[in-house]
Write a structure and sequence with these properties.
alpha+beta; 8-stranded parallel sheet; about 25% helix
Length: about 700
Amino acid sequence: MGRERSDVLRRMQYISMMRPMFQTRAVFSDETEFYRKPMQPKPHEDCTVRIRTMKNNVDEVYFISGSKREKMTLAETVGGFDFYEHTESLTDETVRYYFELRVESTVCYYNKLGITRNLADRYSFRIVPGFVTPDWSHGAVMYQIYTDRFYNGDKTNDVETREYCYLDKYSREVKDWNHPPEDTDIWNFYGGDLEGIRQKLDYLQELGVEVLYLNPIFVSPSNHKYDTQDYDHIDPHIGKIVNDGGDLLMWDDHNNRDATKYILRTTDPENLAASDKLFEELCAELHRRGMRIIIDGVFNHCGSFNKWLDRECIYEDQHGYAKGAFVDRESPYYTFFKFNNEHSWPYNEFYDGWWGHKTLPKLNYEESPELVDYIMNIGKKWVSAPYNADGWRLDVAADLGQTLEYNHKFWRKFRQVVKKANPDAIVLAEHYGESAEWLLGDQWDTVMNYDAFMEPVSWFFTGMEKHSDHYRADLIGNGESFESAMRYHLASFIGSSALCAMNELDNHDHSRFLTRTNHLVGRVAELGSDRAGENVDPSIMRAAVVIQMTFVGAPTLYYGDEAGVVGFTDPDNRRTYPWGREDKEMLEFYQAAIQMHKEHKTLRNGSLKFLGCGYQYISYGRFSDKDQFVIVANSGYEPVPVELPVWETGITRNANVEMVEIFVTDADGFSTEPKKRLVTGGVLTLDLRPHEAVVLYHAGVGEE
């Protein structure tokens, strides 16, 4: 027995000498094109999935999906890593899977969390046969425009003071383009329009923008236009007015029946046709330039001015328009709204408003097949010829309908209609919180990425909530919290959904990111406009932009961020673009950062792996089978020494190699001058300066 035991010990010693300790950090898989071929498979197609381990480091690897458990094949060894494969013959059903790895007596599991024992379905990898997000959207540089505040290219269509009345206030033409918005701002118009966007396309293209996302552009009485008056037409106030005339309201008149100038401008068929034509021409020009356009769809609610309701009675006597449901119980649009008193016609004010707002009537889809058909036709119309818009951003998309069950039913149908009309269009939703149940491949393509981008980035770099309503000292510089939040929320996405998620630092609903760097808690009503620009720190914003341009998703600028625009949350964030007064250094920085992003395919669709996140710093790799990027950022005011295991991206551990620092920003500015950095044994050592963010590059795959 003693001799047998001695033989066993010798064999164990031999094994331990021949094979290194199990390297959990070497294990990697995801849903990008290198680890899944094809990345977006069709129904009944074969799909091959891969997982990476360290060379000669595991005994067996299994593919697990439901009750299926199949041993994977060692396909190749490259750069010190073994790659195991499994080919799945698909049906039209979703496949959820994870991996089991065995090393001697050790068994562990790998899913979207990494090495884990949490095998909940939400963390499984997913193959959804037939689910396709447009290739053009993967990592696309997007630019959000709040049209009224971007550029006034046609002064003949400007809203005039006292043109109409809304919420007991007259519309107001703001003459001073540089005047900041007032605390309550929906009646104030600066004159930005589609012609202004058209005139600035050279600027946008030189900046590096690939996709425009426009806040609502359909007929509406407000400057934000989330209270749609007519889904069928572009608003002539941002489009084109060919027939003008009529009267402004008198100072003591609040009755919009008398707002004949407004009525003519927004209901005249020639004005509407000319505005639609202008939008058609803008779309065509964008497409000629190789650019795209996404428009905003507000389908949960409309506005009290809407022709279907007509609370303002501006359509009541107009030729060619049916009576609105507010005016007449026999209106063809009666079922479009939910009325709570059947004895109040004409002029029935007892209808449901979204969150109780009578200016935002809730649309009553469940009881109106006609409304459903109408909105489906709208969804199809604007992504079809002659407009050919490239997709929809869906406002408060989870609120639509009376029940969650119906909400999902509606978006399934909407997706089918839009994709049939334009297979290359994107369906992108606004949503706060968990979005996994809409990202199953049958409803939305992706979302505005609050949970897995805007919020973690804001907390890490500024400690500020996205409205500037709270400051969290425990989250500023908290790299571990950043990483855990990202891992958790990214698990909601199918891989191709994550590649086109709209990664914004700020937008029309939240404080400007640059303002968050001053750590002031509050809003413009209490703090005043000037304080939004006090003690801001552009170097913190530059570091955050480096993350924006290198993280998984579509980096999306909110107009004017690149020019140094500040502002507290809505409405102060809706300041005009400062033409001629831009922060030239910030603008130059954005151009360089965007160029870096666009030059490298791996920054659009490569794999993501966190390399280490700690006090004041975060780091991660973006990599493919061809090259590797390492990104590291210091959010603090003190230097931070870091050691990064860059071998996890595919760089060799067995020899000293060089990475090239291709982009760096810190408290003193930014640089794109290449600088070599030595990697020893697969580890890169850096001393990060305050507010420094670095992008390093290595071409090729290391050989062992």
